[in-house]
Design goal:
5 helices; Signaling pathway modulator ZraP; Metal_resist; 2 domains; mainly alpha
Length: about 160
């Protein structure tokens, strides 16, 4: 084998490894986290934060708020997609060959509006969830929310607590 063939094989092996790691991580996250709904819908960072916070509660409390969390996910997903689309418009305006400041300002205003709507929805859902919890459970959520978050806690097994 010559040098170019070895290089090609190396690139193919690295690409295969990267794909396997990606799909392996997705499968592990999908099957180990019981709060992730079936279907693999993208949840976004706020949804993961809600899951992370809820996982700190006792199992009985988690079961009580899980339906509200699932309802939240269904409600927020279309708005999250609108934010993503608005963000893409901003990016397109930024990289457009013929820069148009007015178009960028309009795109930024739309992004701000979409993000504000999503924030209002998330806050309303947080009120619904908090109203189902006791004072001690709400205090526990605040304590957990204010503590540093290691990434591995997002995928921890709820039943082990």
């Amino acid at each position: 084998m010559n040098q170019s063939q070895l290089r090609l094989i190396g690139i193919l092996l690295l690409s295969s490894l990267a794909l396997n790691l990606f799909f392996g991580g997705w499968l592990v996250g999908h099957f180990l986290n019981p709060l992730v709904q079936q279907g693999g819908a993208h949840q976004g960072p706020m949804m993961m934060k809600f899951h992370w916070l809820i996982q700190s509660l006792p199992a009985a409390s988690q079961k009580k708020v899980l339906p509200l969390l699932q309802e939240h996910q269904q409600r927020i997903q279309p708005q999250f997609q609108k934010v993503q689309q608005a963000r893409q418009v901003v990016y397109q305006q930024l990289i457009a060959p013929d820069f148009n400041a007015a178009a960028l300002s309009s795109a930024l205003a739309n992004l701000h509006q979409q993000m504000s709507q999503m924030q209002q929805m998330m806050q309303a859902d947080l009120v619904k969830i908090a109203s189902q919890l006791s004072a001690e459970e709400r205090r526990q959520l605040v304590t957990v929310a204010q503590s540093p978050r290691p990434h591995h806690r997002v995928f921890s097994n709820v039943e082990s607590k």
